[in-house]
Task: structure prediction
Amino acid sequence: MREFLGIGGYERTPEGALSWQHLTFVGLLMTAMVAFAIVLGLRNRKKGEKTKNRALIIAAILIDAIEIFKLVVFCARGEGIREMRTNLPLFLCSIQLITIPLAAFSKGRLREAALDFVFIFGLLGGLLGTVGAFQNYNAYPVLGIENVASGLTHSIAGFASLYIGISGLASMKKRNIPITYAIFAFFVAAALIANAALDYNYMFLRRGDGTPYDVLFNLVGGNPVLYPVGVVALFVIYIAAFYAVYYLVSRKKSVQ
Result:
C-alpha cells in the first residue's frame, strides 16, 4: 500500500507510455467505461429525468471523491502545497470535476449547458487522459496513485459523456451554444491566469509536455502566441463540428 500511494517515493521504475502495462490498464478502464454507459444508458433511455439523473449523481460524487482522496494522499506525502498548485481543475479533462456535478445537481439552462459540455468533451478528455496521457505514464508507475486516480476520473468523465448521449439527457439546444462556449472561455481565461501566476501549463496552453498537443507545438515551432491560439482554435472548431455532426445525425433520424 505504501508503494501504491508513493509514500517515501516509488521503488518501481515507470513502465512507460504505450507499454503493455499502460495499454492493458487503460484498456480495462475503457472497456468498463463503455460497458457501463451502454448498459445504464439503454436501460434508462425511456425512463424519467429523475431516474436518468441517478447515474450522473453517482458519477459526480465518485469523480470528486477520488480526486479529493488523491489530494489527501499528496498532503500525507508532504507534497500538499506544491501538488495543490498543480492540481487545480483547469485542464480540459479536470474541468469535468466541476461540470459533471453541475450537470447532476443544477437546474434550467445551466444544467442543459453543463450536460452538453460533458457530452461534448467528456469522451475526448477520457481518451486523452488515459490512452494519450504519455507524460503521466512516463513519470509514474501504472499502478501508482497518480495514474490510477487519473485513469478512474478520466474514465468517469468518458462514461458520463457516453451515458448522456445514450440515455437521451443531452439537450444540444441551439440557444445553449453560447453558454457552452462561455464555459470553455471561462476556463481558458482561468488557465492562462494560473499559468502566469504559478508558472504552470494548465490546459497545455504553454507546451505539449509529451502529449498529442506536441504535434501542434512542433508544427508552429513552439511559438508562444501561435501555439496557445492554435490550441484554443482547435477546441472552438471541435465544439462547432460536434454540434454540426449531432444536428446532421438527428436530422437524418427524424427523416427516417
Notes: The chain is about 70% helix and 0% strand. The mean pLDDT is 91. The first helix runs from residue 2 to 5.
